[in-house]
Structure formats: structure tokens, C-alpha cells
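Rotation project, supervised by the postdoc (A.L.). Task for the rotation student: set up a whole-complex structure prediction and record inputs and outputs verbatim in this book. Inputs entered:
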Amino acid sequence: MKKISNYIWDYRFSYLGAVLSLLIAVTLDMAAPRLTARVVDDVIVGGKTGELKYLLLGFLGVGLGRCIFQYVKEYTFDKNGARISGDMRRDLFRHIQSLSADFFDRTNTGELMARVKEDIDHIWDAVGYVGMLLIEVFYHTGIILVCMCMINRKLAMLSAAAMLLCGTVAVMMERKLGAVYEAISEENAVLNTVAEENLGGVRTVKAFAREAFEIDKFLSHNKRYYDLNMAQSKVFVRYYPVFTVISKVLPLLTLLVGGRFVIGGEMTLGEMTAFVEYSMNIVWPMEMLGWLTNSFSSAVASNRKIRKIYEETPTVTEVTNPVKLQDVRGKVCFDHVSFHKADQHEILRDITFTVEAGKTLGIMGTTGAGKTSIIQLLQRMYDATGGAIYLDDVDIRSLTLEQLRTSVSFVMQDVFLFSDTIGDNIKLGKKRYLDFKTVRKASTDAQASGFIERMEKQYDTVIGERGVGLSGGQKQRISIARALSKKNPILVLDDSTSALDTETEQTIQQTLAKLESTTKIIIGHRISAVRGADEILVLADGAIAERGTHEELLRKRGLYYETYQSQYGELSEAGAAAHMDGPGGEAQGKQVRERGGETDVLQFI
Amino acid sequence: MSFNSYKDDEQSTKRSKIQTLKRLLDYLFVYKWQIVFVLAIMGYGVAVSLVNPLIMESAIDDYIGQNDFRGLYRLLGIALAVNLALVATVKLRMYIMAKVCNRILLTIRQELYTHIQKLDFAFFDSRPTGKILSRIIGDINSLKDVLSNCVTTLVPDGLTVIAVIVIMVCKNPALAFASLLTLPFMAAATFYIEYKAHPRWQSFRKKSANLNAFIHEDMAGIRIIQSFHAEKETENTFDELLQEHRNAFFDAVRMSDSFGSVIDLSWGLGCIFLYFTGIVVLGVDAVSLGTFIAFGTYLNMFWQPIHNISNFYNQLVTNIAGAERIFEILDTEPSIADGAAAKPMPEIAGEVVFDHVDFSYDDKVKVLDDVSFSIRSGETIALVGPTGAGKTTIVNLISRFYDATGGAVRIDGQDVREVTLNSLRGQMGIMTQDNFLFSGTIRENIRYGRLDATDEEIEAAARAVNAHDFIMKLEKGYETVLSERGGGLSVGQKQLLAFARTMVSDPKILILDEATSSIDTKTELLVQEGIEHLLAGRTSFVIAHRLSTIRKADRIFVVDDGKILEEGSADELMEKKGIYYQLYMAQFKAC
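Outputs recorded:
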């Protein structure tokens, strides 16, 4: 993790300018009492009225100077705060994106949002106006002390002691507040998560009429948030009055002691007036120190939370000298692969298969049998815990993640679309490189161009988050188009046509069949989805239970056959012989394929 | 419906700032007694700070000047006592204010959240979740300081300013006039800056929401992003959004920061006018030294609160945009809500009637066109037809997720619009394709269907839908903690859990919209058998593409173009050789 000080260093010149402006502004501020003293001592008491116009010009100069330098100072600090927080956000975002799937499995979106948003906002304040005011406070008090010393050293000691006391209290308060702020930051993340889930699951909430339950759930966290904020206030209230006491008592004490000095002849009345004015001028920095410490503690606590995320490292990493394949053909080979997630039972056991480039593999299996895990391993979302996976005979762990992942287009079962235009959703990953023609072709192949082009803005239509506003089938077709547009050597469809009617599904399958050089892995529950594959694996409990072609598996009369029976039982009785095997079945298949273009009656959108 | 993406700014309704402020003050008004107390305490504080210069003046003119030690001690002793008493009250004041402000934030946040629960789908669908979230969290937090400063800055500083003016005028009207000459200039400049800055802060809030929306979507969709190796691309988009966010801030703060400059300049001019008037116009001897010094002090005392007030005003301008965004949601009326005369739905027997129902989302395209049917209690109805035919819309109208634009939907003879939503939906089991699981244990997730379900009932439901086996295979069984959206489970497993959740709710009407699409056929059969006896005699609606799923339905409705084209049992429809027959044959040919 890059330290905050390094982020600040990046803007050192800008900060330098800002601090210089600050110094000038504060110095001008200091000059004001001097001017007043001169007016009193020289003009009023001394009667040198001639000097007045210079002194008045002095006031104008100070006013103007402050006007300019204050502005430069404030704006620059604000600007730097925004830049640094922006840089930190950018880096944190990149870091989070580089983490592996296991991190996202156990971390809620709401929490990550809170880190990237609210926690960095706190740091923004600290490197912006809070930092500025802190510097100002220190410089201000420092310079006042010097001025005081110049007038009367003994009297100045009084103020110095007071400031020291303030500083000590501030440090003590920071320690106490830090713990509370960390808890607040944590609860803020929880609040975010609860609300985020509620909004995401709004359909479920409403379907079960659970609004009241949700409101109560939120209330309990909202109350906890309140309690923590009150705890923070209590700490603050305990310490803060110390600053007030000191700031109120100091001028009075100064007046008392100073008065004695004047009477004793150690200093002039004008000097003492200036002195008292100085001592009143350090009142606000002292009170301010309390507030600043408060904000600062919050930033420190947030920074600790952010650091925790930086401590996470990607579990899937690249080797130092990765192999670069010149041309990926798309041969996939699983060699005795097994997989389990940390402290969980085995998800995959001894999976071995080879798909030659351009061939098709079908995967079926019961719910939770591990079908999707195979693909996740192939893309190295997780690393296999046993065995090895090869792409074109190279162990995928020795390839770059980029080459591996851009070799495989994966249509996920859980379709995820962004609240963006349809076109950009399809282009995902290659927004800059894909032209409209490719997008359109992919959409046509995925049977999506029909409904897209019927929309008013076509490919520029903005869709809702997760594709709200589209039907399940439409979402699936867009995500198929997304995969097709990449023209990667390997195409994986994970139960991607479940929401499509049979006609559309078939048409898509025919298109896929034409992609001769593309290796296809098709996971499905419908026999129709996998029957054309060169090899079909039937998974049960993480292991391969049956394998073979459609015909071989039917003959086996095992799991595959059972599935077939329950989906097409009645039909197969009616016309079994016709398509079980033999040239008749072939012919019928072809017939359907040829009819493909004309089935518009049923080409439902 | 138009959708707002993370890239586009939200449209905001125009409302007056005074109104927004008034509404905020209404929240404060609830705590009027606490605030009166705080103000009384602060009144004391203001009085003390006003007296302090007088003490100073007296100390210099009466005692130090006269070499009167004892008098000086006496005077300062009193001053010390008065000031220490003040500190004690400061503590009390801060505590009360912290409590009031945090309470108000708690209230507003809860109110907002409660209101959001009432809103209809159109609200949720039309904008990214992250943008709604940024209102619940960020925008409300931004009000914290504004609220407390309303009381602790505006009132006491306002009073101080008035008091200082009064004292100055009493002491010497001419000097007072001279000192305050710059006030109108300052006021004008302040309003001008506000006028310019407000829309910029509004824009900044929107950019902030965009950023939030993008972070949310990116984190939620991280799997697809990594799968397509789109990290670089999302990073670029994020950078662009950051840039916009940053620039919006620069624009706004560039304006707001000039508040300080205006004050500094006014101060400088004020000093010139004061001394010029005092010395040149009135003459040196006309004004005593003590008075002059006191005047100088008052002038400082005048500028400090003015500075505070304009800072507050600045803060108000900065943050009122957040309040506006909150009130905007609170003012959004849900289109689906309980009518004034809505009564609870009695226990549902299960008779469902569509009486010439029309429906359209946008008043242009008719999604349902004059649909009429009548379903007897206990019937199982399957809806088949192409994507977008209107099947989901039909079931959405039964559970009143939307209201029919024409005709009526009646359950047991009762128009669904005349009963409370809670009593209606509470008796239905609705399963959609999008089965949301919450972070929490599996048990908690199933219990979501019926909050008072016993562990046995939960298990029974899980067994019925064939989920029990896989749950038991997990190390912690029903106590396994799922991350959000059921992370860690396969899509099929999630569907089974959602199914169990629906089962446990003991629905009087069951609606299954592609509820088993991600479950393998074998498991699906087991599920069907399992729920059959649980739901004996209940009305149910099933939408599915896999025809094997719906074969057992009592009646099948073939829906297309918002109309029911065919209806009858599977056998009847096969004989008819119509659309259903064609659909059936298509699946047959596919295999």
C-alpha cells in the first residue's frame, strides 16, 4: 500500500505553494494587531496623525493580501484533498479488482463500497481542509508565541504552557476517539450492506411482504450507528471543554499578570494591549484543535480500515516468467483435477477430459454437482487444488491471466448486465476495439438483434442495473452476444439458454455449430442443449459419473438416459426409433436445421 | 421506462431552498425544549464574551491606568468565575446538541428507508442501487454538521452580531456606522456566490452518486469483469468518473472558497473606516483610548461571528443539495399503495378471476390486451409462450406488483386493489427467476418465508424441495453462513433454497415463474413430487419453457402478444394441433 505521505508527496509543489500562501496569510493576520498597536501608540497616544494614512493603507494591504492568499491557500488545499482522495480511490479500486474470487466470496459489496467511498472521504478531509487548519493552528500559535516573546518573555511563558497543555489533551483525545471511529466506520459498512441487500432484493422483500421486517432490521443497525456516534460525542464532550477552559482563562491571566507588569513598569500599556490581543488570538486555534483532532481521528481510523483491504493479496497469481502462446488454438485438457475451497468439502474429484480444438464438450449433472466450478477453474477464478489444467498443452498456471481469460468467453448462468447501453454491455472487455459491425453480427448470432433493433435507441438503449427492464431470455441473449463478439478460441455456455424458448435456443445452437474453429463447452439441463456435443460428461457429486456421445449415453441407460426419459419420455415412446440412431435421426436433425430460417412464426422475442 | 445509468446524472426536481431549509428545521423543532435550553446556555456564553472586552476596558482604564492592584484582582476574580461557569455549560450544551443531531439523523434515515420500502418497482428499476444507497448513507451524513450548526452557529452568532451592533451604536453611533459600512457589500457578494455555487454543489452530489453507482455495480459484477478481463476497461471508466467527480468539486469549491476572501476584504475596509472616522473625522481627543480599544475588540467580535455565519451559510449551500435529494425521495409517491379504504384480505381460497384486463407499462404498448379467465380454487395453471408474451405480467398483476390499466383482477371475488398489500402478498408464494438470498445463515434465509417457522418446519420445507441433502453436506448444515446473494452456492442450489423459503411461507396461491429453470430435470421431478402434497388444494401458476415442467398442469394457457390464444389440458391442446402442439413438437425435434 502506498502510504498517505507518498500521496501527499506527489503534490508537494502544490502543497508547498499552499503552505506558503498559508504562511503569508497568517503572517498578515499577525500584522493586524501590530497595526492596531501602532494606531494606538503612535497616532492616538503619540499624536502622530501623519502616520495614520500609511497605517490605514496597511490595513487595506493586509485585507487585500489575506483576501488573495487565503483564497489560494483554501482552494489549493481543497484541490489537493480532492486529488489525493481521487488517487487513493483509484488505487484502492485497482487493488480490489485485482483480488481473487475467494475474497469476493466472503466480502460484501456494501462493505467495499463503504471503504472506497466514505472511508476515503474522511481521508479527503484530513489531507484537505483539516490538514490545512492544523498547519494553520501550529503556525499561528508558533508565530504568536514568538511575537509574545519579543514583547515580554516572561509573560509569553504563560501562553506556551497553555498550548502545551492543549497539545497533550489533543493527543490523548485522538487515542480515545480512534477506537470509536473504527467502530463507526465498521457500522457504516454494515449499514451500507443491509441497505444494499434490501435494495437488491426488493423483489423478494415485496413478494414476501417483508417490508416491516426489513425496516426493523435496518432500525437495529441504524440505532447501533446512533449509539456509536453518541459514544464518539461522549468522548469528545469529555475532552473538548479542556480546550475551552484554557482559551477562556488564558487572556484573563495574561491581563492579570500583564497588568502587574505595566504597573510595575516592565512593559508599556500599548505593549500589554497588543499582548492581550495576541492571547485572544490564540483562543480560536486552541478551540479549533479540539475539532481538528476529532476529524483527524476519523481519518486515521478509516485509513486503518483501508489498510486491511490492502493486506489482502490475490490468491491466484501469475508466474514470474509466463509463457506467451502465439496463437491459441483452444485445446483444453483437465488432468486429474480436484478442487475444494478453504475448509469445505471437495467440489470436484479427479476430473480428466480433453477437448480438442474446435470440438464440443457437453456437461450435465445434478444441481451442485460442480459443473460451474470446472469453468471457474479453467479461467483460473480459483486454482485447482489437485491435478493440472492445460490450454494447448501448456499448464494454465504458467500463462498470463490476460491471455488465459481472453482465450475463453464465458456466458455465465447468473447473467450480469451493467446499467449502461446494450452496445457497451456487449463490448465489455473490448470497448475500444470492437466495431459496430462485430457487435451487430454477434447480436444476430445470439438472436438478440431482433429485439434490440426494435428498441427506439437500439444498441444505445440504456438498460437498468443487472438488466432490469429486460426479460430473462433477453438478458441471456445479450450475454451470449457479449461472449460471441469476442471471437475467443474457447466459448463456454453455462446453462445460458434456460430462459429461451426451444426455437430460439435451436437457432443459436445452429449458429454455434458453424463456429468450427471454436472450442465449445456447453453446460445445460436440457438434453437439447448438449446432445450435439462430441463428448458429454455427466457429473454427480463432483466426479464424472458417465461420459460419451449422446447415443452412447442413451444406450448406457444410466443417469443421462433417465434425464432423457423425464424430458422426452412420452415423445420418445411415440417416435423413438426415428431419432434414436441411424440415418433417419440424422436426416430429421438436418431437416430442422434447414428449417431454421423459416421458423419465424415461432421466432418469439 | 427510461433507465438512469451510472454515467448519467440524475434529474432533480426544482424546489426552493427556503422550503428545504424549513423542512430541515421542522426536524429540529421536535426537540424545541432541548434547543431552547441550549440557546439559553449559549445566550450566557454570548453574554460572557460580550462582557469580556468591557472587563478588559475597565481593567485598563480604571485599574491598570490608575495603578489599582486590588481593584484589578477583584475584577479579574469575578471574570474568572464567570468564565469557568461558562465552561461547565459548554459541556452540557455539546452533549445535548450531539444527542439531538444524532437523533435527527437516525429519524431521517429511518424515515427515508421506511419510505423507500413503500415505493414501487418503477423507482428501483429506473436507477442504479448505488445511487439510492448514496442518499441513504452519504447524503444523510452530510446533514449532520449543518443541523448542529443551525443551532450552535446561526443563533448565537446571529445574536452576537446584533448585540455587538447595539453596543457599538450605543457607545458611539458614528464609529459604529463607519465600522459597518462594508456590510451591504458583503451581503451582496455572499448571495452572489451562493447563487453560483448551489447548482455546482448539486452537480457534485450527482457525480458522487454516479461514482457510488459504478463502484456498486463493479463490485457486484466483479466476476464477469474478471472473466472478460475487463479490469483495464472498468479502471478507465472509473478514472473518468473520478475525474468528473473531481472537476465538479473543483468547480464548486472554487466558488465557495471565495466566501473567505470577501470577508477578509470587508474586514480590512471596516478597519480603515473605523480608524479614519475615529481619528480624522471625530478627532483624536473625542474618543477615549479604552473606547477605541474596546471598539477594536468589538469589531473583531463582530467579524468572527460574521465569519462563522458565512461559513455556515457556505456549509448550508454545500450540503443542502444532500437534503434536497433526501426530500425528493420522501416526496415520491408509490403508484402501488394501500387505498384509503383497504381492508385486510381474508384467508384466500384460491379463486382467481381476470375480468377484461388490460395492461401497459408506458401507456403505449399494450402488454396485456383484454385478458379474461377464471380459475377455480386448487387448480394448477401453466402459462406457456414466447419470451415477452406477457406471462410474467399476468402473475405480476395477481400479486399486485403492478395495477391493471383496464379491467379488474379478483381473488375470491375481491378486487386486489381493495385489500392491503401486506395481507395479499403475505398469502402468496411468489418465485421469480431472480431469487435473492440475503447474507446470513441458510436457516435464516428459509425462515424469511415465515418468520415464526420452527426449525422442524424449515427442515420439512427443505426436504420437500430436495434441498435438505445438499444443505446437510455443507459443513455447518443449516447454520452455514451465505454471503450476499447466496454467494458460494450454485445457481441451482440457490433456486432450491428460494423454493424452500417459498414453501415454508405456506402460500395460499403459488406462483412459479421459471422457478426451476436452473435445476436439473431429475431434481425438478423430486421437487415437484415433494411440493405436491404440501400444496394439495392450492391454486398455483407455473411459467416454464421446459414443457416437461408443466405437463401435469390442470390447464395450460398459451400466451402470446398479450392474449391467451389457447387453453386446455395438455392432451386437449395436443389434439388441437395448434400453437402448443407446435411448441411441443419443436422441443421434440430438438432432442
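Student's summary: The longest helix of chain B spans residues 69-118.
Supervisor addendum: Chain B has a mean pLDDT of 81.
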